[in-house]
Amino acid sequence: MKIFSGVPKHVEEILTTNRRSFLKSAGVLVVTFGVESGTLLTEVNAQTSNAVTYPDPDFRQLDSWIVIHENNTATFYVGKTDCGQGTGTGFRQLMSDELDIAYEQTTCIMGSTDNTVDQGGSGGSTAMERDSWSMRRAAAEARRVLLEMGSVRLGVPVDQLAVSNAVITVKGDASKRITYGELIAGKKFNVALTGANANAVTGVAKTKPVQELKYTGQSPPRYDIPAKVDGSLKWAVDVKLPGMVHARNVKPPFAGAKLTGIDESSVRNIPGFVKVVSKGNYVAVVCEREEQAINAAKQLKTTWEKPATAPFPPSEDLFKYMRTATPTSASRPIVTGNPDTAFSGAAKVIEVEYEVPFQGHTAISGAHATADPSNGQMTIYSNDMKSYGMRNGVATFLGMPREKVRVVWMEGPQGYGRTAADDAGCEAAWIAREIGRPVRMQWMRNEETAWDTKGPAFLVKVRGGLDSEGRLVAYDYSARACDYNHVGYNEPDTVLIAQFMGSRRANPAAGGSATPSEMYVIPNRRMLGEVVSLPLVWETPLRTGNLRDPNGPQSTFAAESFIDELAAAAKTDPLEFRMKMLQAATNDDNGFKRARSIAALKAVAEAYGWDARPSPKPPGNGNILTGRGIAYSFRGQSVVAQIAEVEVNRQTGHVWAKRLVCAYDCGLVVNPQNLRRTAECAMLHGLSRALYEEVQFDSEKVTSVDWMSHPTLRHADAPERIDVLLVNGDPNPNRPDLPPYGGGEAALKPMLAAIANAIYDATGIRIRRVPFRDARVLAALRTAKA
Amino acid sequence: MSKITLKVNGSTHTVDVEPATPLLYILRNDIGLQGPRFGCGLGQCGACTVIINGTAIRSCVTPVSSVKSEITTLEGLSKQGRLHPLQQAWIDEQVPQCGFCQNGQIMTAKAMLDKIPNPTDAQIRETMNATLCRCMTYYRVQAAIKRAAKIIAEGRSKKGVAA
What we know:
The complex is a heterodimer of chains A (786) and B (163). Chain A is of the alpha+beta class. Chain A contains 19 helices and 29 strands. In chain A, strands 12-13-10-21-18-19-20 form a seven-stranded mixed β-sheet, with helices on both faces. A five-stranded mixed β-sheet of chain A has the order 15-25-24-23-16, with helices on both faces. Chain B has 163 residues and is of the alpha+beta class. In chain B, a hairpin with a 2-residue loop joins strand 3 and strand 4. Helix content of chain B is 39%, strand content 15%. The longest helix of chain B has 25 residues, at 138-162. The chains are: A alpha+beta (786), B alpha+beta (163). The interface between A and B is large, with 69 and 65 residues.
């Protein structure tokens, strides 16, 4: 068994001259991973500072996407990053298919700004749905060009050639053959592509119909996993540079505080102390060794002035505050039919509110980056999922020419949006320039949990009117998201260090709210999504950013809980109630969302073994109450229906999701195993948000600072069984142009509602406030009993 | 500063550091073993786990001067180029998402299986409960532990037959 060597191929290529000279860019660097002899990776040809520039790989050049090597292997260069869902494996499958090369003969290099074209990195579950198309078209074009070259070399027209596993043969005479490697052998294609941007890029060749894809739809194991389990992979946190020092931040003890003094003498006695760096309200300490920097950050004496007014209400008053705040957004409801008239004629009207608090990204490790300021350039080693955005952000923040800055993407703790609003890259780069040495920055646990970007809190008021037949005839949904000044794209003027240094954007980001995503036929409906702001907008730990389907889980919790409440009021089975509303029309969108919604709900119910009956179940006698809940939604064109079966402990209030079933329709499935794993984990992420996650704060600061005060799902919470069914509800499921839809986020979306609905089914208790921690469930059980 | 000698994965290293320094930083920054990772620095998450005397230890809260026995890190699990059955099971089950915490998952599972070769579901949940994963790979980690336990047991019985 081979033990894997670990240094990521893309980093190795960046640090060697091959790729750089191939693309005609430059660099200077000595990087080591580990300190033992033999791990010195490379010494790159040092050049004068004037020569160091990092141009953008030209997305209109085929050579920027694909290199064919002499040994008949291929390297694919893509402008994406992987947050842990194995997208690189999927890209290799698709591109191998279009190029007609064996999957095993390929590698994929991702997301480093001077090495791969700018496709924006990751975000929005767009990897397969949007960004894979240009990769496929480039691979198809490479195949076309190689066939033409083969035609010249073999002396027969292209239509008399066959190609398989990167070997071109003459039809009917397999002895006449030539490999891709022999044809091009590491040389350039020099073929221009067309298209307005990296995602529109195309050659002359057409991509293959689905039926001709060989690797697509198979499940080759993820290529990144072996080095992740044998300890050999080198991550962004592992980078070491000669002369590198360690930095740690000193955050204000109160939100909105003003720095009034730093006593540097309080840390000068720390061995290895290098410097305190500060500007405005930003403070960091730099030491030779990591533990020294950690100690210095704790020990540094600083004084701060509290803001004149409270930055935010305490978390227990958040929803009261949101209810009465004046929205920062315009109120533009989407209205169909005549809701007011319908409500006045309704036989039964229900009106309730749902509350979802701020929830943290709380990545398993803090934000981190290492910056190398040598020779007038700046290289940042980072796990930023939008590495290209970071490059632009850092260049602007530092006032450096863009071509003097590059970001080398490496693996890191899960992205899910946090690393699109990365803070450490700008911090490391700024400090590195201040002190003129390479700097490694990493956030501590309390800092990351308190100050990372948050998923916005939601307050949702919903009103529904049923007619005498129990049909939903009037619907009024009104959501308020605490999401003003939403950050999340590496903007140099809103990154936290810039805020601390006094940057104030004239027009903060408007933020977003959300209305339900479903295809129910409700004749009269009004839907409104509004945004509100906390009092403190800048330099606040309660800043919002994209958290895995940024508003979807919150709005779907409200919308799909409410549908369940209506079904219960109509004394109808909750699945039947949904199905009737989906089947009440036959019109559909161009992605067949109605047909696919119906198919997904049918599939999940059948796989679970759904017994049709209204909720709640007749009350049980034992200590453990069981129930099942269903919810469905879509994100983009991906449709997801889920059923949760829960056990609720009547004595403790503890909820255990014993079984989860998911029907997932992502269109064309590139790698079924990867998609199933991603869905399993997204569902449990939703479960964690349903049961545990809440950012707590008093009126001065965030008090959630670790895994005790911002709890998360744990091993004991794992379901006994998870089933993920990959469904294809397309009316023409075998159509040759079936496209792939996003797979990374959608499976999280309905889970909060499915759990709430299952708790209701088990107990008759409707919990409208997330999370459903033991104490909240127990209190609700006791209130109901009283 | 004082000179401290550590035995890690069969090799001996002498470092000159503050005795109170957490073992994690010595392993990562001085010895170059970066399998253990910083997650919380509080002993709450397990990303920094190493094995000492058969016990899974949180190296982020373990002063280097307190370490008297040999340390095993993730890098030390494979022997003569052969992956440990747990590592193979992790690949076979395709466990990781981002993978950052998986050092803790694998090392905690290793210490458990060394003591309890055939753990029940309840024992797995209890032993692993303080080892956190924010990608939520728990379900698949547990499946991989059971798979590895089976492989190890089969290996033992084969050896038994041969003997």
